[in-house]
Predict the 3D structure of the following.
Amino acid sequence: MLVSLVAYVLCGAVAGVLAGLLGVGGGIVLVPLMVAIFPTVGVPAQYVQQMALGTSLASIMITSISSARAHNARGAVHWDIFKAITPGILVGTFFGGLIATHMPTMFLKIFFICFILFVSAQMLSNYRPPASRDLPGKMGTAGVGGVIGLVSSFVGIGGGTLSVPFMTFCNVPLHHAVGTSAAIGFPIAVAGTLGFIVGGWGRPDLPAMSLGFVNLWALLGIATASFMTAPLGAKLSHALPADKLKKGFACFLILVALKMIWGLV
């Protein structure tokens, strides 16, 4: 148990830095790592992906608070956007999490692999939608939030890989989009976590310290470390060449995807 706790702490430290530094959900790293760890601590194979997604989202509740506070101190959080997008986020992520708990593990793994390959391609190409329009009205922004929340619940992330491009497309400066995305990660995490708890409630054969599809032991280690490292990532995002870092991270994600594909084969 001690070995697994150390592993969770290391995972959380990396996830916290990434959340603040690149504006991507730490779940992109957390989910494949937990998929590798959970079978060794008694999580049944048919529930491994759901447990990884639920626990990842639960940990983002802590990471997003820490990261958002750091970005807000630099004036990089647009709270008007946060208020407009949150209703859609809450609905989309809760029902997305609930739906994911009833999906086959194989489908969720394939969806996750496709998603991280998409994120890798986006980072390597450095593609950003041209800032050619303003934000839609409240209904339109909430609708976008619903889509972001739905996808985020299927892959266990804080939504930054979708919300940052959306905001830059709508003329929000990149650093402000990253900061606002960190704040948006909190309602995504809360609603998604509730969906995975409700959907996993009463499932047989889950190990001790499980609250639905949230592993509390993993959450403890990840959340403790990520809370401390997220401000460091936010600080580095304003000082380091983010584009170069993203390209290196994209190459790492491709290797992760290939390993997961090999595991499926």
